[in-house]
Amino acid sequence: MTGEARIDKWLWAARIFKTRTIASDACKNGRVMVNGVGVKPSRMVKVNDVIAVRKPPVTYSFRILKTIEQRVGAKLLPEIYENVTTPDQYELLEMTRISGFVNRQRGTGRPTKKDRRQIDAFIVPSMENGADSFFEDWDGDDNEE
User: Fold this and answer.
1) CB environment 101-116: b (16+ within 10 A), e (fewer)
2) 67 or 118, which is more confident
3) Rounded Cα distance, 27 and 34, in Å
4) Would 23 disulfide with which of 6, 11, 51, 137, CB 3.0-4.6 Å?
5) What is the C-alpha separation between 144 and 140, in angstroms, rounded?
């Protein structure tokens, strides 16, 4: 273990990003900051640096406990970094999940199969529950007088 590691390799090795290419692109596009400063993929990081990774709508923050450049198993991650993301970021994530808003730009075409299933799961059960309770009391005879 050395005292420093490249930020793109560390992000990949710590399983923040699935591939090193994605980690590198995130650095290039300004979605990764080290101690509050935007960085290039070749930036060297060291122990106790705080990394902020913006994955909309949330900005995750991590404190480096160990600098690594080789990918490790998921069970070893607590030794690699400490998650210091603020609770308000997790609240923001939860609010976007519950809102049911499909985050698609206008005019990008029809919803995908996955989008349609999510919309159906959000809308249909509430409509069915309301319809069931309405029809339970109704016997079909409008002229009871």
Assistant:
1) eeeeeeeeeeeeeeee
2) 67
3) 10
4) 11
5) 10
Residue 104, pLDDT > 80, answer no
- Token readout for 46 is 């060291």
Gyration radius from the chain CA atoms: 24
Tokens 């808003």 belong to residue = 101
3-state secondary structure 68-111: CCCCCCHHHHHHHEEECCCHHHHHHHHHHHHHCCCCCCCCCCCC
Neighbour tally for 121: CB within 10 Å: 10
In terms of residues, how long is the chain? 145
Q: What is the pLDDT of residues 42-90, one digit of tens each?
A: 999 999 999 999 988 889 999 999 999 999 999 999 999 999 988 888 8
Q: How many C-alpha atoms does 61 have within 13 Å on its Cβ side?
A: 13
Q: Of all helices (H) and strands (E), which one includes residue 46?
A: strand 44-46
